[in-house]
Amino acid sequence: MDMDDKEQTRQKILAAAGRRFQHYGYAKTTMSEIAADLKMSTGNLYRFFPSKLDIAEAYALAHESDEEAMMASIGALPKSAAERLIEHHRALLDYTFTMIDESQKIFELAQAIGRERPSYVNRRLANERVYLSSILKDGIEDGLFAPNEDINRLAEMIQCATMKFRYPQLHNCFSLDTLRRELEGTMDLIFKGLIKR
Amino acid sequence: MDMDDKEQTRQKILAAAGRRFQHYGYAKTTMSEIAADLKMSTGNLYRFFPSKLDIAEAYALAHESDEEAMMASIGALPKSAAERLIEHHRALLDYTFTMIDESQKIFELAQAIGRERPSYVNRRLANERVYLSSILKDGIEDGLFAPNEDINRLAEMIQCATMKFRYPQLHNCFSLDTLRRELEGTMDLIFKGLIKR
DNA sequence: AAACTGAACATTTTGTTGATTGTTCATCAT
DNA sequence: ATGATGAACAATCAACAAAATGTTCAGTTT
After folding, report:
1. Does residue B40 sit at the A interface (CB-CB below 8 Å)?
2. In this structure, are A109 and A178 located in the same domain?
3. For chain B, how many structural domains are there in total?
4. What CATH number does residue A35 fall under?
5. Which residues of B touch A119 (CB under 8 A)?
6. pTM beyond 0.70, yes or no
7. I need a surface site. Which of A31, A92, B73, B128 has the fewest CB within 10 A?
8. Domain limits at B87?
9. In this structure, are A18 and A75 located in the same domain?
10. Whether residue B115 sits in one domain with residue B182
11. Which residue among A146, A172, A182 places its CB closest to the CB of B160?
């Protein structure tokens, strides 16, 4: 079995596991079921993934591409940096809120990964900063935003300030409308700043 | 028994319950224990509080006075509105983080109230906005901050942007130093705004 | 009549048991 | 030798019984 075959099997495992995760949730999906779906033995799964959690993580990683595409397309929009920045946050809020709202199963998966693999969350935040930084850089070059020597840090701080909207479920605030309005106001605050000009 | 006696008994109950809450936590404190401490019957407690959770809420409310005093004293500091605003957030971050860090029991209490009585959380946030608004108003009058027609909404948005620092335990970020640095940066972001002047 | 009690009730928590599940590894098949 | 298996193992979960707890209220005390 060469490396290509191995990769192909990994993909098949991810697909089978994903189907189960979506239908029955992370906890109620068993390794033997995944194996049975693929007509292989339970033990064999461990030649491709070190643990069930790693399957979940790889599955989540694969499905990041949706978010990735969304962020990329917003970053490329023919709009001002300010508009793209707010659109970025609006889109992510809607995306995660809706996702979690309509699929308890996906939420369970996300919770399990977040709990057992905190580093995964950090990787995702770091990845988002790539897109944020790009928008910020544009804005600065266009003369819209004030110059800043550490754009990545700036992106980090924007993430801090919008944390509430990234993990809406944590703050038991269950109305998307409220969150949307709060996001508008918060972004406005960030944009305008408080200091009189 | 007149109203004063009744109030006095309420206070005694709160004191007894508080001792138990602090030592053993909310869940491990029973109504019969509280009653026994006061040499009264279990049933009698219910003539003073409708439920155990209401005792917890009243206890928390009584201990808000610490926070209240802190916010009041910071609001009255002979410093600029900007400095008071950041000091306000610094103090609350330190206060809640340290409190939770050194007493798992208090955290448990807070969680129970937050879960079963979401309205309590909102009341506290609304109360904080009184102090925030006062600082903002000062800042605007001094010409430091830009005028704003809805100061309470402005305070709300600042709360949104600093939510991460108000409930640090929710975001599994366990280093106070990191949080402090992030808070500085976030406040800076809020102050300066992004738009070039 | 008003203040209070403690047994009664329903609900929740705890403890325990057996079954299930994630993971490993000696073994078999190719 | 390499790929794969499934029984074995320890850890976790599910289900049920037992105990404890929050709450109520008929009844007692003052």
Report:
1. no
2. yes
3. 2
4. 1.10.10.60
5. none
6. yes
7. B73
8. 63-192
9. no
10. yes
11. A182
- List the A27 CA – C12 C1' distance (angstroms): 24
B146:A192 CB<8 A: yes
Q: Do B193 and A196 touch (CB under 8 A)?
A: no
Both structure tokens of A150: 């550490």
Separation CA A144–CA B64 (nearest Å)? 43
Q: Which of A167, A170, A190 is nearest residue B193 as measured by Cβ atoms?
A: A190
- Buried/exposed A124-142: b ≥16 CB within 10 Å, e otherwise: beeebbebbbbbbbbbbee
Q: Residue B53 is encoded by which pair of tokens?
A: 């959770």
Domain identity same for B127 and B33: no
Structure tokens at A195: 């200091």
Q: What is the pLDDT of residues A72-109, one digit of tens each?
A: 999 999 999 999 999 999 999 999 888 888 888 888 89
The residue in chain A having the minimum alpha-carbon distance to the alpha carbon of residue B119 is A172
- Does residue B58 belong to any structural domain of this protein? no
Verify that B14 and B100 share a domain, yes or no.
no
Q: If you search the block for the tokens 């399957």, which residue do you land on?
A: A55
Same domain, A40 and A128: no
Lowest-confidence pick of A87-91, B69-73, B101-105? B101-105
Q: Is residue B197 part of a domain?
A: no
With CA atoms as reference, the chain A residue closest to B165 would be A160
pLDDT of B73 above 90: yes
CB B67 within 8 A of CB B29: no
Token pair listed for A184: 């508008």
